[in-house]
Design a protein that fits this description.
Oligomer: single chain
Structural class: alpha+beta
Radius of gyration: 43 Å
Strand order of the largest sheet: 4-3-8-7-6-5
CATH class of one domain: Alpha Beta
Largest sheet: 6 strands, mixed
Number of helices: 8
Distance between the termini: 29 Å
Length: about 325
């Protein structure tokens, strides 16, 4: 049973570790602003553009997303211009047109000083206006760029799905293995003699506490003897007579059994077993503690059911 508990503890620890790894690493559950884990009870905000989670107080303090390359990051947003769905070539053409308009006014668009419109050159910073030309972007280039971005985004999503499903599969496998291992160990225990002896002890203690002399008498062998502290043996009839009187005298009887040790007296005789345990016997206000030893026996005559044939109390 100790090995089952140990194995269960290891499985629970692994599941907890994998769960934390999934939440923290695969689902971005670390706030990029304060670098601390976002716990389930924490109030959080999710950036609608990059889907990164933040603590709400961190989001409010930064006034937006704190991911470096996200447009909702105030540091990026204030410096960037929203170009919508324009392609890179279209943006370059707009910049080239703006620079040409500035050079026509005799001002260098790069350093802001005088610009020679005839030679199309700035003698201060070396800016060459002839290199700024307006071009048109072929449709094929646009489609290639679009397909490349789509492939990159899809690949990233597929990787996250793969990690998620792999983690779920590992957790499920560990749960199944844990269940199978526990079932095997429990099945072995329920079929073992230790389990049968444990049931016998519970039935024996219950006979005392319920003050049922008939149930108690059925647990004794016909050759039963109780050995007192002075080594004087008491036979079956006398013992039953004394127990009956105790059941009639006391209104409440409690028997606590702990530290049970099962010893097979002879490896060649599996029908004999010694059961040794610490007993606390309470009858009304009277209490007695000591070490009880029950020598059990079974045979075809007892229908292979354990019976007490010797009883010792120290």
């Amino acid at each position: 049973m100790h090995s089952v508990k140990l194995f269960t503890f290891v499985i629970v620890y692994l599941i907890s570790f994998i769960k934390i790894s999934i939440l923290c690493n695969f689902f971005d559950m670390v706030c990029p602003y304060c670098k601390n884990i976002i716990k389930g009870k924490d109030e959080k905000v999710v950036c609608f553009r990059c889907e990164t989670r933040h603590h709400k107080k961190c989001w409010d303090e930064h006034q937006g997303c704190s991911t470096d390359d996200c447009y909702e990051n105030p540091n990026v947003k204030f410096q960037a211009e929203n170009v919508g769905n324009k392609t890179l070539s279209e943006i370059k053409n707009e910049i080239a047109v703006q620079k040409k308009q500035i050079t026509e006014e005799g001002v260098c668009p790069q350093c802001g000083k005088g610009f020679d419109k005839t030679l199309q050159k700035c003698f201060y910073c070396g800016y060459d206006g002839k290199t700024e030309t307006v071009t048109t972007e072929p449709k094929e280039e646009f489609h290639e760029e679009f397909a490349s971005r789509l492939k990159e985004k899809t690949s990233f999503k597929n990787q996250r799905r793969l990690i998620l499903f792999t983690s779920i599969a590992l957790v499920s496998l560990l749960i199944v293995l844990s269940a199978v291992f526990s079932y095997i160990r429990l099945n072995e225990y329920y079929k073992s003699e230790d389990y049968k002896v444990d049931l016998f002890l519970k039935e024996w203690a219950n006979a005392w506490e319920s003050r049922d002399i008939f149930k108690y008498r059925d647990l004794l062998d016909k050759d039963y003897q109780y050995i007192e502290k002075n080594s004087k043996p008491i036979g079956y009839d006398e013992r039953v007579k004394r127990i009956t009187k105790s059941f009639e005298t006391f209104k409440s009887i409690k028997v606590k059994v702990r530290d049970v040790k099962i010893e097979q007296s002879d490896t060649s005789k599996s029908n004999y077993i010694n059961v040794r345990f610490n007993q606390t016997y309470t009858a009304d206000k009277k209490e007695e503690k000591g070490i009880k030893t029950l020598r059990l026996f079974r045979s075809e005559e007892t229908k292979m059911q354990w019976k007490v044939f010797r009883e010792y109390f120290e």
